[in-house]
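Students often ask why we bother predicting the structure of a whole assembly rather than each chain alone. The short answer is interfaces. A chain on its own may look different once its partners are present, and contacts between molecules only exist in the joint model. In this exercise we take three input lines together and write out one structure for the complete complex. Read the inputs first and try to guess which parts will touch.
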Amino acid sequence: MAGSGTAHLRGGGALTVEHLTVEFPVGTSGDKVHAVSDVSFDLMKGETLGVVGESGCGKSTTGKAIMRVPPPTSGSVRLGAIDLSTLGADQLRDVRGRLQMIFQDPISSLNPRRTIRDIVAEPLTVRWLDGFPRYPAAQAWDNFTPAMLKLWKNKWLVLLTKIGLGVLLGGVLLYVVASAVGEPDQFGRRDGGAGADLANQIIRGGGLLLAPAAIVGIIGSAIWLLLVFLMIPFKIARSVLVAMEKKEFAKEVDEKVFTALEEVGIPAQVSMTKYPHEFSGGQAQRISIARALVLDPEIIICDEPVSALDVSVQAQVLNLLEDLKASRDISLIFIAHDLAVVKNISDRVVVMYLGKVCEVGQPDLLYSKPRHPYTRALMSAIPVPDPLVDPRSAEEIDGELPSPIHPPSGCRFRTRCARATEICSTAEPEIAEVADGQFVACHHPLDEKDWHLSERSVPVTVSSDLDGLLHSTTPEAPGGVK
Amino acid sequence: MSEPDLVPDSPVDRLKVDGGNVSSLAETSGEPAAAASYQAKKKGVFFWLAIIWLAIILICVLFANFLPVPEIDERVGDIRQGPSSENLLGTNNLGRSVLSQCIYGARRSMGVAMIATLGGTIMGGTIGLLAGFYRRTIDTVLTSIVNIMLAIPGLVLALALVGFFAPSGGFEDQRFLFFDVSPATNATLWTAIALAILATPAIARVARAQTLVWSDREFVLASRTIGTRNLRIIVRDVLPNVLPAMASFALIGIAALVVVEAALAFFGVGDVTGASWGIAINNGRADLEDYPHMVLFPSLFMFLTILSLNYLADKFVDLSDIREAGV
Amino acid sequence: MAAIVILIVGWIVGIPLSIRLGLAFLVIVAGAMVTNGSYVLKRLATLVPTLLLVTLFTFFLQTKRVTPEVVAIRVLGTGANADAVDKFIVENNLDAPFLQQYLDWLSGAVVGDLGTSFVNNISVSEQIGEAIPISLQLMVYAQLLALVISVPAGVYAAYRASRRGDAVVSTAALGFLSIPNFILATFLVYILALWLDLLPATSYVYLHESVIDHFKHMLLPSVSLAMALSATYMRLLRGDMVSTLQESFITTAKAKGVSPAKVLWGHALRPSSFTLLTVFAVNSGVLIGGALIIEIIFIIPGMGNKIVAAIVGFDFLVLQGAVVVLAVGFVLLNFLIDLLYTALDPRIRNVRA
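Now the answer. The structure tokens for the assembled complex follow.
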């Protein structure tokens, strides 16, 4: 599985991700974690796209890479027609409002030292502050810093510096050794003779090699220092400006925050001045959603938004997301490992394994007619609330998830796949359409005769418990808030 | 219970629980969880005693001249008199009031230690925040600098630095930045700077360790996705969370620097002519056998101050749910 | 282990201390190389630049603090004429460029020649060689004493955590932590030596002169130094042990019916002692500082008194030598403890590598 290819892209989506790759360097050895490799998918307006896979498959990293925290190693993310990777820092800041993210740990997503009002208002505040003109010194800083850093990271300069340091150290050692073996004169000075003279030359040479780096470093630091000093008066003037307009802005923000909080079911009147630890996990997640809403986003990326919550609270938060989606015409990317949840909320599901896409399709199809062996294994792992079904009949995947540092060649799933053959280790499968709206990246996709094996995972009953909860729309009781 | 329970309900216990999250409390109790958890951590009478003592010391530092005690260099009676109604804590080898020595000594000892700790906290905090937040090259460079500073034993570094900045000797005014000051003042100011340099690496370590933890939290990520500038993230998101640990460490830092400041007097480094607790103790040692009061009272001032600071630092850790990061 | 044998055998055979320490150092490094070569090599590679920078830094502080003329006048006396001053400066290489001075000094230092004192013309290495063992003795006694006090106290406090026994021990620890060692020393001298006349107040007796007198003289200094240390150790051990006692393997042990004493000493102590070990090393910096002051109070002819004499007499080569020896010793000690730590806790290797 683990396929590349873009056959499943529909074109014209609200968000299009193409050939997204994220790699992290490991230590100094030059190894890389291949967290996400050549992943493509798109999201239509008003759609909910589920992304599933076991822990470590790169689904969260994908979500973060779309938000550019950190930016992907390669690949493109297009928001409508705008390619995010081509945007400068300032333009990106403008666009970010259209794309928001909610994280897994609701408590950790809220700064414990700020009030709910400040947390929810932060996106507005940041934007408002950006509205003030950047003063010249800060602009100079913005332009100068990347250039200087680029110069500092210049391959040749770094190499020269390393050689220079080595030569210098060698010269010092030579001098010390040469002099140390010499006899001290009456004043305790030691004559190193020719060795010391040579060492002196070497030390000079090392110094010469270091000179470019030193000059760049000194001039750069001097300019930075100068800019910092220049910034101080500007900063003060700006603070005065900000302070003057703050009151008016605060009023406006209070209203927006109030609306957003009420919309997510948090009693705004009493909650604005409270701190995150006074709320339960479910409430905290609602506050996170409110924070994402204040900028009127088109797309919200939900990174395991309910995994850390109690099942009863999960349903309420999911309902809230559904409601918001309908009322505000928002598209969702819903990342989760809980298949039951994904199935219920998604219009289309992407199954990921070890940084690659396995299968894409409508959830019902994936559940009833999985084409990829990994999808089938995932589906059969969903517990079925039927006493007649033997839980031991669930198909297990053998072995551990392979290391993402050295992923298997060809199809990344082959090491754990019962159907793997020769070709799976040599050629990487391309994503191809196998049924209407169902795409799979596999050399040996499953077909009808294989499905009866997975009959136990009756698609409709999969999450009947959750279905029940989903329709009890009572919002969570505001326990921590009076 | 026949056997003592090995799993106690200790503060550490609570820290572990609270470290995870406090939401469990909020969900079960109708009351705000903060109130409940703060009630559980009673401050107690010692907390207030420590606060009061430090307040007294602070008054001594700020208003020593206005207190109803003899001037620092005023001869108030015979030399080496024990405590009496006239001179509450007795007189020293020059016939000066020991009480005045203690009070004016507080100004010098605590003043130097506090200024140095403040400076060290600002420098160390900046280094630690930058290193912990930006990581990579900046972290490597700053951490190596800190490690080299830590590679020299504290007191030895203090001796070298004070000796370097304030070479003793001479009676003419010396230049401190843009001002002409007396050699004694010069030595004192440079002592404060040397001690600030001494405190910097330790505080930088704490700040870095805490920053590493806090800047991994999802609210920092959330701020990034909003498009917040790094400086604002550091100031608004990271700093307020790192500050409690730094504050607690700064209290211990003041206590440690008071001791180093006094120790320098034992080595005869820096200004040894004025009044400080260390100088008073060192001077009194010669007459220890017959006139212990000359050592006892400054020692007591010093001990109580350090005890209060350490106790408050402990309490602070308990109250703000942090554990000391690093050493 | 082999290192300790070398230290002891060398002492009996009469090999100079510096060689004994050097050999022991090599043995430990070699031992660590066998178990975890790449990590040791990495640390060794950072050790050399660290040592260079530390010596450069201290050399800079010492030589640049006053002009050569001031040194000359301080040493020769205020009445010295200009010619004598010039001669002194040239003879002692004080007019050379700073880096040249440093390199010349370093060349001598690597073969153990730290120069000759301006003041009394005695070799600096010789002076420090006399003082260092005495200071080391004091530090070792204090560390041992601190461990002997802190481990039982820490274990007891953790066992009785949040009860009266813990409260008493912990409060005492906080108290001892807050007494500066020189104040404790002063009052111990006052009470035990001057008042009760049980122990000598000052001075030092060599071990080979009289074992009993030696320990009599070293008892008060060691205790003064050890109390604050043991308080630190005890608090750390208690904290770590309280959390260890909540782990499930302890619950399992108790459920199996293991006696409380065995749970404490057999199961809980070892996993609780890593922080203690680290701090044990980091604390040697504090310990060095403490030992210097304690030596001054008890007039023990160790490094502390050497430093004071050098500061007062403006004997800057001795001061420089002393500072460098202490700093380098501290760096090497930290390096060794790091290796030891790796050997004890294999997880560290991966984390730090």
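Check your guess against this: DSSP finds 15 helices and twelve strands in chain A.
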